[in-house]
Structures are given as C-alpha cells and as structure tokens.
Amino acid sequence: MQGFSTRAIHSGQEPDPTTGAVILPIHTSSTFAQDGVGGTRGGYEYSRSANPTRTALQDCLAALEGGRHAHAFGSGMGATDTLLRILLRPGDHMVIPHDAYGGTFRLVDKVLSGWGVEYTAVDLGDLDALRAALRPSTKVIWCETPTNPLLGVADIAGLAEVAHGVSSPHPPRLVVDNTFASPYLQTPLALGADVVLHSTTKYVGGHSDAVGGALVTSDDELAERITFTQNSVGSVPGPFDAYLTLRGAKTLAVRMERHSDNAERVVELLSAHPGVSSVLYPGLPGHPGHEVAAKQMRRFGGMVSFLAAGGRDAALKICATTKLFTLAESLGGVESLIEHPGQMTHASVAGSMLEVPDSLVRLSVGIEDVDDLLDDLRTALDAAGA
C-alpha cells in the first residue's frame, strides 16, 4: 500500500483525461446527458445520486481509512442520521458514550427516541460496563475516540471484540466517530470497526470553509444500503464543498503533525499554570486512556480540554480574553479556536447524564506559530486568575 500522503494527494484524483488538468474539475452540473433511454454515461445521471467531484472525494476517503466504500454527505450529522436510519428500527437499542458529542446525543435522545429507539450511555473505556449494557435488541455500539469534549479514549479493538462476540443473528455494529483523530492518526476499520464516521468539516477539510460528513466501510451489503438511503433522503454535499474537502485532505498529514506539535506545547503550559486545575489530553501519561491511545493512534492530536481552577467564571473569562484563539464552535481548522462547551457545543446535554463541567474549556489548537499561541493563552489565564 502506498503511504498516507501519497494516497491523500492521488487517490481518486488522476489528471483529467480530456484536458490533462492536474486538479480535479468542479462538476457543477445537476444533470448529465444519457447514452439512450436508461443508459447512463459513466454512471452519472443526476447529482443527488452521484457527481464526479463527490466520487473523487469518496475514493480518497476510502483510501485514507482503508475501506472499500466511502459516502460523502452534506454534514457529519447527515451521515449520522442516514446510518442510524439504516441500522435501527423502533424497539431497537444502541449504546452511546457517556460523554458523547452533544449533537449526536440530541439526535438520539430527542429525535430517535420519538421513533421508539432506546439507548444507554456507557463509559466505553470500561469493557465490562459495555457488556453489562448490551441487550438482545442492541444493534449499534456508537463510539467516539477521543471523545468531544472530555477527550476520553476507548479501545477500538476491544470494543470490536465485544460487539462481534455477541451470539445473535444480528450482532451490534461498531461505529467509530473518527472526527477528532482523523484518518491520519487512527484507522478504526483496521482495528475491527464496522463503520467509520467523520465530520469532514473538521480535520479532513481543515480550513473551516466547507461543511461535510462521511461514512466509510468495507461491508459491501451495508454500503449498498447507504447508497440507496442517501439517494432517497438526499443528504449529499454540493460539488464545491466536495472539492474544498478534497483539497484539504491533500495536506492532512502535514497539518496533523503540526496540530499535534502545537498541542503538546500548549499542554505543557496548561499543566504548569496555577489557573488550571486539570488538563485533559490523551498524550499525558496520567490520562486514563493514554496507553490505549498510544497503541491505536499515531500521535495524540490537536484537541485539548482543561478545567479552569477558578470555576465557571474563570472559564468564561479565559474564553473572552484570548485574541489568537478565536471564540467559536467547530474545530480542526488551521486556525486556533476556544470555546466553553457547557454553553456552546454541548448546551444540548445540560441537565442530562452527559452534562459537562461548567469550568471546562475546549481548545482546537491550530497551526500558527506556537509561541504566539502560548503567549495568548498565558495572558488569558493570568487575566482570569487576577
């Protein structure tokens, strides 16, 4: 197999056969001429069903995750909803992380529950707790690793062993949200996952200019069902978003190395600062998931969370004081972002078992000059302490 960066730059991206253009054209056409009634030209008839720019992105994503099939979506939540429509029916049960992403929890708790789907939130770092939560009706084990925003780590190979060891005609599928790690740092299919999900808005695209999602699998039958359902519900990206995501993927390896370098320096600062009571980062030897992360990840990534020693007020002041770290939701772009999850991305879990600490601050560490980032954070931490 070719190296990661070679695949990122070349998979699905051969020079245009007509013009020789090295960069893939953006096929904006909504419809395609047919070679006779019922005969498609190159497999394309209508852009909701398939588009050449989207095909190139899907080929690239499949190559990066080591899967046979990839489907690009209009958003990560569009991918999540489509997959769960396929895997779950009224009366079915799923397991989710006890610190799941707020948007996923909202979909499961507020939308799917009205359809008769039940769920149990479990610490997926505890395989015995997972086994205890399984039911005959469990059809999905939904994993994030690292989790958003508490940076919890789950053993993907261990989860796969539990899922595939269930004695049932229809054992649960293991779905891994790989958004925080990206395919450069972690490849869940190689560890036994059935499906990998991405919000490609984040690290894969990497420039905060395109919203998208993806599913990757090597299960041929499931891939056919995804193709049919996606076409039926229409959750597809436009060709320009597909192009931007594909362009971003070309530099994923070099960006993730810089994200990780910068995050490690940020963690050093936070760990030593009196304004921080706890740092959450899988790269720290004291992190409960450190050994598992070291085993299944290439590096530990660019996401860092911490608890402000001064509580909620200090956390809010830190978020309001930084200059280079922009106060904004989302993550994974080249620019550094800061947020207060309790009032921003995870407001939907307030009052639930998944509620996050109100002193929690989440950082998406970008690829700027790290000394500038450290100065910005140090100033904000000092101001909050004063």
Word description of this protein:
With 386 residues, the protein is α/β, with parallel strands linked by helices. It folds into two domains: 246 residues, 3-Layer(aba) Sandwich (Aspartate Aminotransferase, domain 2), CATH 3.40.640; 133 residues, Aspartate Aminotransferase, domain 1 (Alpha-Beta Complex). The protein has 13 helices and twelve strands. It has a seven-stranded mixed beta sheet with strand order 1-7-6-5-4-2-3, sandwiched between helices. The protein has a five-stranded mixed beta sheet with strand order 8-9-12-11-10. Helix 7 links the parallel strand 5 and strand 6. The longest helix has 21 residues. The termini are far apart.
Quick gist of this model?
By secondary structure, this protein is of the alpha/beta class. Helices cover 37% and strands 15% of the residues.
